[in-house]
UniProtKB/TrEMBL annotation, chain A:
GO terms for cellular component: cytoplasm; ribose phosphate diphosphokinase complex. This is ribose-phosphate diphosphokinase. It comes from the Eukaryota. It is an enzyme of class 2 (transferase). Keywords: ATP-binding, Kinase, Magnesium, Metal-binding, Nucleotide biosynthesis, Nucleotide-binding, Transferase. It comes from Canariomyces notabilis.
TrEMBL record, chain B:
Keywords: ATP-binding, Kinase, Magnesium, Metal-binding, Nucleotide biosynthesis, Nucleotide-binding, Transferase. This is ribose-phosphate diphosphokinase. InterPro entries: PRib_PP_synth_CS, Pribosyltran_N, PRTase-like, PRTase_dom, Rib-P_diPkinase. GO terms for biological process: 5-phosphoribose 1-diphosphate biosynthetic process; purine nucleotide biosynthetic process; ribonucleoside monophosphate biosynthetic process. Residues 6-103 form the Ribose-phosphate pyrophosphokinase N-terminal domain. It holds the Pfam family Pribosyl_synth. It is an enzyme of class 2 (transferase).
């Protein structure tokens, strides 16, 4: 067709999080491309393309579905590879929750650095660019030799806190030493106090003893972390904060993976609310857990896609959340 | 006892790993290979692999509860872990290579899609040049001039600006949809479900999504081929060498930049024919489709047995017997024992349909010899109900469940000696071509 029609945004959605893709598409004022993924009865994934991507700017949105990470990852790789075969001009993998982000170092002998493997696989499949949200360790960007835009949920969190609480009554708490940087950044922006919980972790997914560093007495303690998986850490941290005299405890978490018995754990905890973004599909968890609240991250992702497509800077999004 | 070699098994086929290890006289490498509750694979290799020659056995099994993509990711993670653990060389042993056989066309329940289906859907798509056809049975029905909206939609479509308009009547107008368009909505609805609901799919969650899918007008939908990707991913994970068996397309070997040893199940099958089929010299070896003719003739020639071929009729035919309408036998099987040879049976549709045809043509007894018996979906029931008297497969994928269900109808050939010998030879740098011909 006409010249200005060439090289448009093509938004392709994986099966893991169609709601997010729909929201992004709506925000961008486009339609999700006509593609479909299926599993054959032998469990091989097949990806059917129903419209041309030749010379288009392709964005493939695929999150991780809790419990089905590998399925989603293979699907994403097949989608990327298919678009490359179909002569897309550029392929951007939009992975709100980067899979295997926690397996980012060789913490013991012969442990796999799966995050690097995923990075290599994405590039092998043909991704030219990656957009993600709150990487567990920003060093993962170094595993790639293609550009990686790591967006932050922080501006959305700041707005949420400002809208719902008086920052002066709050204290921002990091549930572990690793997240101190993330939490202090929020505390600095709000000009509030900061506290830290030190924990010993004997084995993965098992939480040890916890010690509070800082004062939370008569304050609203806001736990800040990048992901809530089994929620063991958060719930124990909340209990520690309550013991130390916090008025109430809530948690702001970017990725609500909420696997295993997370919902039951949350329901039985002293946490008054868990606020997550919709980077991970939550399914029926919102109904099952009255404490769970969701911040929509799609405006940030959509804006990043728009800016990437138009060759504008995305750094504005590191400090501002589009409404 | 072989030194400096580590055999590491995935979760897909523990029995084969054990049997290969027994033959090599060494214990399998200790490892933890599970899943975190988030769904990410957890892999820890507990024995040292530094400077070792590592062989990782993981078959491309899927279906009936087994997760193919999980197994494949596990394999890549294990390869990568061994590589970062300073293994000297990592060899991926994939008795059944995943994603080696993918149809070009959207999969229909009727097994491998026929060309007819494709051309049909091509014809049904509203293209730039489309003109409204005269309605007749078998001729695509136009969008209909029922109301003004339809016309607007069609105009929109012809200018290719937007494909969102209602277009289902155009899409699924095969012969019998003719009656569905003008008002008889019931027929149309039923027809649509049958047509679009016929994907062999395990994608329960998005059934509505599947039904709603339609390609943009004027664009012929296609299915991504993952073979090259899988090859690249294995190399990217760090595999230095790949050992597999009976690749569906020998060309897959060329997708790799690392050496690929493609072993053959053929000697085993030949041995079976010699030992277990009485008067096999008088039998006929059948290839159930043209693609497998080469495999089947190779066996037929070397054993001096007659050969016949089942040909999929690709010209549009108007035969009402849907099951066999598209199949044609080339050769004579009347009052003979038939031996069907194929490399892989997944849904079992091809071989069961072939068997039906052979029975109709007067075959006395039908054997089906396959290298890979995946038997996903309702394959077991289909085979149980079919005219096949005996199915013979190798244990390139675990067969004990199939054996339990099929009983004496299934014979399983053990491939672990071939793989053990291949591993031993590769490790010592000996030629493995002797394995290609051994009888």
């Amino acid at each position: 067709m006409s010249a200005e029609m060439a090289n448009e945004i093509k938004l392709i959605s994986g099966r893991s999080h169609p709601e997010l893709s729909d929201k992004i598409a709506k925000r961008l004022g486009i339609e999700v491309a006509r593609t479909i993924s299926l599993n054959y009865s032998n469990q091989e994934t097949s990806f059917t393309v129903g419209e041309s991507v030749r010379d288009e700017d392709v964005f493939i949105v695929q999150s991780t579905q809790t419990g089905d990470v590998n399925e989603g990852l293979m699907e994403l790789l097949i989608m990327i590879s298919a678009c490359r075969t179909a002569s897309a001009r550029r392929i951007t993998a939009v992975i709100p929750n980067f899979p295997y982000a926690r397996q980012d170092k060789k913490d013991k002998s012969r442990a796999p650095i799966s995050a690097r493997l995923v990075a290599n696989m994405l590039q092998t499949a043909g991704a030219n660019h990656v957009i993600t949200v709150d990487l567990h360790a920003s060093q993962i960007q170094g595993f790639f030799s293609v550009p990686v835009d790591n967006l932050y949920a922080e501006p959305s969190f700041l707005r949420y806190i400002r809208e719902n609480f008086n920052p002066e009554d709050c204290v921002i708490v990091s549930p572990d030493a690793g997240g101190a940087k993330r939490a202090t950044s929020i505390a600095d922006h709000l000009n509030t106090a900061f506290a830290l919980i030190h924990k010993e972790r004997p084995r993965p997914n098992v939480v040890g003893r916890m010690v509070l560093v800082g004062n939370v007495e008569d304050k609203v303690a806001i736990l800040v972390d990048d992901m809530a998986d089994t929620c063991g850490t958060l719930v124990k941290a909340a209990a520690v904060l309550k013991e130390n005299g916090a008025k109430s405890v809530l948690a702001l978490v970017t990725h609500g993976i909420l696997s295993g018995n997370a919902i039951e754990t949350l329901n039985g905890s002293v946490l008054s609310a868990l606020i997550v973004t919709n980077t991970v599909p939550l399914g029926d968890k919102v109904e099952r857990c009255p404490k769970l609240r969701v911040i929509d991250i799609s405006p940030t992702i959509a804006e990043a896609i728009r800016r990437t497509h138009n060759g504008e800077s995305v750094s504005y999004l590191f400090t501002h959340a589009p409404v | 006892m072989v030194r400096n070699i580590v055999v590491l098994g995935g979760n897909s086929h523990p029995a084969l790993v054990e049997s290969v290890c027994n033959m090599l006289g060494l214990p399998p490498c200790n490892r933890i290979l599970t899943k975190f509750s988030s769904g990410e694979s957890r892999c820890e290799i507990q024995d040292s692999v530094r400077g070792k020659d590592v062989f990782i056995i993981q078959t491309g099994l899927g279906g009936n509860g087994s997760r193919l993509n999980d197994h494949f990711m596990d394999l890549c993670i294990m390869i990568s872990a061994c590589k970062t653990g300073s293994a000297r060389r990592v060899t991926a042993v994939l008795p059944l290579f995943p994603y080696s056989r993918q149809p070009d066309l959207p999969y229909k329940k009727a097994g491998a899609p026929l060309f007819k289906a494709g051309s049909e859907s091509g014809k049904k798509d509203y293209t730039f040049e489309s003109v409204p056809a005269t309605p007749a049975p078998g001729i695509p029905q136009s969008d209909g001039l029922g109301n003004a909206n339809d016309i607007t939609n069609r105009l929109l479509k012809t200018s290719l600006t937007n494909g969102a308009g209602a277009m289902s009547p155009v899409k699924q107008s095969n012969g019998d949809a003719y009656f569905g368009v003008n008002g008889v909505n019931g027929v149309n609805g039923v027809n649509a479900t049958r047509h679009l609901g016929s994907y062999t799919t395990h994608d329960y969650e998005n059934v509505s999504h599947v039904h709603a899918f339609q390609a943009k007008p004027g664009y012929k939908q296609w299915v991504a081929q993952a073979g090259t990707l899988v090859a690249n991913l294995l190399t990217c994970a760090g595999a230095d060498h790949v050992i597999t068996m009976d690749l569906h397309d020998p060309q897959v070997q060329g997708f790799f930049d690392v050496p690929v040893d493609n072993l053959y199940g053929r000697p085993l099958l030949k041995q079976y024919i010699r030992q277990h089929i009485p008067n096999y010299k008088d039998a006929v070896i059948i290839s159930p489709d043209a693609g497998g003719a080469k495999r089947a003739t190779a066996i037929a020639d070397s054993m001096g047995v007659q050969f016949a071929l089942i040909h999929k009729e690709r010209r549009p035919t108007k035969i009402t017997d849907r099951q066999n309408a598209s199949m044609m036998l080339v050769g004579d099987v009347a009052n003979r024992v038939c031996i069907l040879i194929d490399d892989l049976a997944d849904t079992g549709n091809t071989i069961t349909r072939a068997a039906k045809l052979l029975k109709k043509e007067g075959a006395t007894k039908i054997y089906a010899l396959l290298t890979h018996g995946v038997f996903s979906g309702d394959a077991i029931n289909r085979i149980q109900a079919s005219a096949i008297d005996k199915v013979v497969v190798t244990n390139s994928v675990p067969q004990h469940e199939h054996k339990a269900l099929l009983g004496s109808k299934l014979d399983v050939l053990d491939i672990s000696p071939i793989f053990a010998e291949a591993i031993r030879r590769v490790h010592h740098g000996e030629s493995i071509s002797v394995l290609f011909n051994h009888e």
